[in-house]
Amino acid sequence: MDHLTRELAPISTAGWQRIDEEVRERLTVHLAARWVVDVAGPHGWQHSSTNLGRVRSIGTGGDAVLRQRQVLPLVEVRVPFTIDRQVLEDADRGAEDLEFDDLDRAARQAALIENQAVFHGSAEAGISGIADRSPHGPRPLGAEAGSYPGVVARAVDTLRQAGMKGPYALAVGPEGYTRIVESTEHGGLLVLDHLRRILDGGKVVRALGVRGAVVASLSGDNFVLELGQDLSVGYSHHDRESVSLYVEESFSFRVTEPDAAVVLTD
């Protein structure tokens, strides 16, 4: 038995398969940061920290010099949710039109926490986000999608001048993304298509949890999301009416090349 204790849940093999499929489907939509940064791992639940390759002096002892390795501890995220036992029984019968509203909420919340840590950091966890580390001055994105191509083009030019190669990604909050996909420029060109050209064939990513937007180089080795345990579903407890589960992961994040991103504000 592992720490997820799935074997103790009153859930059939088919039921677990359905739950895992539902969670995977929802997380794929919301885990925007993973389209922009490098992902290392998963290294397993027991993996506790990321090596930073640095030391700090902690004194001397006679002729000896004492130094301590510096690491970044991983963050554990656990988001609980419940499923009615009637829904699980219906899944075993082959029902397709099942309601997993609380599962959807939990998956969205877990993805939001990861996205926010990557793009905006987490002071409590000692994580600096992409927006925190960028040395380039923030640029206003504006409220009209028609102005986005010019703003993004200038951001891409800034990255090129800093030696950051393409392709590039535009990670933009849900409202800004909606404006993009609904808009055309004079002449009928879709704003989305124009942005992709500016990004050198890169990606426009709908990023839950992003404030404004971030333009980042996808050349690699610039940002690293390190996973201990990747997002998984575990069992907590149950009663006659429902089963209490959770979505869980452990991760750290570090910016290895601050020059590789430009922040666009609302």
UniProtKB/TrEMBL annotation:
Entries under Pfam families matching the protein: Linocin_M18
Record keywords: Encapsulin nanocompartment
Compartment(s) where it occurs, according to its Swiss-Prot or TrEMBL record: Encapsulin nanocompartment
Similarity comment text for this entry: Belongs to the encapsulin family. Family 1 subfamily.
Protein name in the entry: Type 1 encapsulin shell protein
Organism: Kutzneria viridogrisea
